[in-house]
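User: I've been trying to design a sequence by hand for this structure and keep getting stuck. Would you show me what you'd pick, starting by listing the structure so we're on the same page?

Assistant: Good idea, let's start from the same input. This is the structure you sent:
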């Protein structure tokens, strides 16, 4: 142990250099006194697997297992700092290729901030309350029983967040994201995987106002069982499913179906290749009930509440390559008009079916457009 004093503040530090660990590796353990509410910083330029668990002791406990042919070139240290503690893992000498395996198991007081920076490896955090932030260059994030605020990302791996009350953001550049049993405002992002919200309540901790569900992915399905304050959803390749939403749903995909089981508000949905199925619920005169539904290849079904005041504008385009003539099936009286001759649109001949009507004064705008698909407009059962 090395003692250092700065400005009257005594700092105790523990250092361990992993020398000549060889293939059999070396395991070590450390303990440092810390106070709840302090911060642990983990910086691993070597990369490594990190497991952090909260416990009911004012103590930092670290168990480290280092293996691999280049383990003797790793400097590993656990150090007490003014703000809490720090864990560092770095190579003593740069080499073109280095092979090591570092596994950390860390225990901290339940109330503790965490900052993690790793060149690669999975991160698992359980039963911690505080500000939790960081990133890994490649590995999964497994997050359970957390409270506070999150800002975590991985360059390549899945993310699982469960049984937590948190606000913030989680992001992966190449994996799936699943949120399950979460209270708080969490924005989930994936650049190449599915995003699934399962029993996520976005009303904010302590009954605060919260915000809408916001999800974006560059390639994968999106599933949202509940979005009481609305949903803003976007994927470049996958289906979108919303079971129940309030206020609004904005959904966009470049390739997949869109299904909105129940929305008490307005809808804007578009897909380049897929069907759209939307059911509006609630008081027909209470809030905005506009609908703009567009698909470039698929059927559209919209059910609206009884007594909804609407201005309806439906357009079906069909090409010579279409399988058949396409139709509008409506519970509401529409003025139907069809083009008699082929019209050229960007070099491709098309015919059109138009359906228009003003129902109950035309307060809400219902606009539906599809190519080579049927349109069904019904009253909500």
């Amino acid at each position: 142990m090395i003692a250092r004093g700065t400005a009257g503040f005594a700092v105790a530090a523990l250092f361990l250099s992993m020398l000549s660990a060889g293939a059999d590796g070396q395991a070590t353990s450390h303990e440092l006194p810390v106070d709840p509410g302090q911060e642990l910083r983990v910086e691993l330029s070597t990369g490594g697997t990190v497991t952090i668990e909260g416990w009911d002791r004012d103590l930092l406990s670290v168990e480290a297992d280092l293996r691999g042919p280049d383990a003797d070139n790793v400097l590993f240290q656990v150090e007490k700092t003014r703000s809490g503690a720090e864990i560092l893992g770095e190579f003593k000498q740069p080499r073109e290729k280095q092979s090591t395996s570092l596994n950390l198991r860390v225990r901290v007081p339940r109330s503790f901030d965490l900052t993690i920076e790793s060149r690669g490896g999975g991160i698992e955090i359980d039963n911690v309350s505080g500000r939790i932030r960081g990133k890994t260059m490649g590995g999964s994030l497994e997050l359970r029983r957390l409270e506070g605020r999150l800002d975590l990302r991985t360059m390549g791996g899945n993310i699982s967040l469960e049984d937590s009350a948190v606000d913030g953001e989680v992001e992966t550049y190449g994996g799936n994201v699943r949120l399950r049993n979460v209270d708080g405002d969490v924005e989930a992002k994936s650049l190449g995987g599915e995003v699934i919200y399962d029993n996520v309540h976005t009303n904010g901790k302590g009954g605060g106002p919260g915000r809408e569900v916001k999800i974006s992915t560059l390639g994968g399905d999106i599933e949202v069982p509940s979005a009481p304050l609305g949903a803003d959803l976007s994927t470049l390749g996958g289906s979108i499913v919303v079971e129940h939403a309030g206020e609004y749903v904005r959904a966009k995909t470049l390739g997949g179906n869109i299904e909105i089981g129940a929305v008490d508000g307005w809808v804007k949905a578009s897909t380049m290749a897929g069907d759209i199925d939307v059911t509006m619920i609630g008081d027909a005169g209470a809030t905005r009930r506009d609908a703009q539904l567009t698909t470039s290849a698929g059927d559209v079904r919209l059910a609206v509440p009884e007594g909804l005041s609407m201005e309806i504008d439906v357009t079906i385009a069909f090409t010579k390559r279409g399988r058949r003539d396409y139709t509008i099936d409506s519970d509401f009286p529409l003025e139907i008009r069809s083009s008699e001759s082929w019209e050229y649109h960007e070099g491709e001949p098309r015919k059109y079916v138009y359906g228009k009507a003003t129902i109950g004064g035309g307060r809400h705008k219902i606009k539906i457009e599809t190519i080579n698909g049927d349109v069904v407009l019904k009253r909500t059962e």
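That's my pick for every position. To get oriented when you compare it with your attempt: The radius of gyration is 28 Å. Residues 1-117 form one domain.
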